[in-house]
Amino acid sequence: MLARNLFIFLVVVGAALAIVSLSLQFFHLIPTTPMGEERPPQGQGQGQGKSRKRVIPVPNTEAPEPDPIAEAYGYCNTPNHSEQAWEGHSPVDYKLLSIQVMIRHGDRYPLYAIPKTKRPAIDCTLSPKRKPSHPQLNSFIGHMAQGGRGRWEGTLSSLPRLPNHSTCEMGELTQTGVVQHLRNGQLLRLAYKRHKLLPPNWSTKQVWVETTGRSRTLQSAMALLYGFLPDFDWSRLTVHHQWSTLFCGSACDCPARNRYLEEEQRRQYRLRAADTELERTYADMARTLGLPPRQLRAANPIDSLLCHLCHGLSFPCVAAGSALGSGGCLTLAQFAVIRRQQLEDEVDRRRVGLYRRYAVLATHPYLNRTANRMERFAKANAPGRKPRAGGEEAFTLSSAHDVTVAPLLSALGLEDALFPRFAARVVFELWRSPPATQGQHKGQGQGLVKAAWLKGERSKGGNWGNMFVRVLYNGEDVTFHTTFCRSHGRNAAQPLCPLGNFLSFVKKDMFNVLNATSYHNACYRRTG
């Protein structure tokens, strides 16, 4: 009898707990995703089965507040975690023709020093025995010693090919930065290996490398290139110099771009000045250091504090009674306030839209060269065309800065993309679809493809027959988030974005936001 009553009691308790558990899941008070399992990003992971643990999902209309500290660690991009790269993925039988890569340089020493504090103690020489390291680091160091055999445009030959100061100089690439790009190059090599993008005897024309005149961008380019093409032949390599951080070549003169930038900077200033918590934080930091708040702001302390955070160093301290300061250490809470304001600035920037207008004009010259390369490659690979002697530029690498990559993302319409972290990469891929659909006679299929290609080339905007593009940011496929391909159906007959969409965007459509029809028209048109 006692056993029977105990059994009934346990059944009742179990039922009650089940009801409570379901209620908690309904109101999202406990997670419905297993620990250690990540949900796929929105719009991805479809068709892989529904989660049985999901109970009546409630749409979340409010984006969660970003965590400034977690975001800062993501910006550091410390090379000690696995990363999945989606470069080189395509439907079956598609042929990869070319890739164009823009990178931000790797981790660097601060550009500014916080007055009255010690500079971060970081060694900028390279040593395979010091972390973070990379299996190719030692051979990379040896290969760079042979760099005199390469061709260096302009003043690039006078820059060091490796960081080489035991106490880092301002803005110098660190060992972390070198390892970040060795990893980038290795990821791309593994992603593209099966596509045989470059022949073993690749020519000077097929590999194009360009960099600004800073040692950190040149060294980052060399690290990625070495990871991608280990022990590359220096005699085949020319490194080109881009004098502008916008990579605008001969098309840098654009008065309207400068006006939009000035308006954007005024917006930033007004937003900062209205942030009372930020003002108090700067005043507290200045009091600790014994500085006027204005002088501290001018030193851009977030740059140095980020370096401390990324390298696991304690934040700067000053002794009590030092000059007029109260003494003490700068804190993580103060750092978080400055980063919080920067994240809010990015939201306001998207809302106002001035930066987008600036970005379109700032990046059009680079995007125009990118589009022209794709167009040449598409024509060279058209049915019946003979390959050009020496080949086309199958691999292009542009080594740049945050002020280059950030406007590029904005101009492409990737407004929700994270601010470019150290060693960020943007990749443009050009693909050709199979020459004939299954079941067609080979000759008939080739004839149909040639007719479709010619029709696409002549049509307005065109779809360039069987040519397609992909855009990736830090290994994630963002093609269908871009302005030029957002409306192209993922489930269309062709699952990639038509090249014609990209060409039409660069040549004309990207200027719609400026109510203009061309780059020249947008740059020089008088307003008001």
TrEMBL record:
<comment type="similarity">
    <text>Belongs to the histidine acid phosphatase family.</text>
</comment>
<dbReference type="GO" id="GO:0005794">
    <property type="term" value="C:Golgi apparatus"/>
</dbReference>
<dbReference type="Pfam" id="PF00328">
    <property type="entry name" value="His_Phos_2"/>
</dbReference>
<dbReference type="GO" id="GO:0050650">
    <property type="term" value="P:chondroitin sulfate proteoglycan biosynthetic process"/>
</dbReference>
<feature type="region of interest" description="Disordered">
    <location>
        <begin position="34"/>
        <end position="63"/>
    </location>
</feature>
<dbReference type="InterPro" id="IPR050645">
    <property type="entry name" value="Histidine_acid_phosphatase"/>
</dbReference>
<protein>
    <recommendedName>
        <fullName>2-phosphoxylose phosphatase 1</fullName>
    </recommendedName>
</protein>
<keyword id="KW-0378">Hydrolase</keyword>
<dbReference type="GO" id="GO:0016791">
    <property type="term" value="F:phosphatase activity"/>
</dbReference>
<dbReference type="InterPro" id="IPR000560">
    <property type="entry name" value="His_Pase_clade-2"/>
</dbReference>
<dbReference type="InterPro" id="IPR033379">
    <property type="entry name" value="Acid_Pase_AS"/>
</dbReference>
<dbReference type="GO" id="GO:0006024">
    <property type="term" value="P:glycosaminoglycan biosynthetic process"/>
</dbReference>
<dbReference type="InterPro" id="IPR029033">
    <property type="entry name" value="His_PPase_superfam"/>
</dbReference>
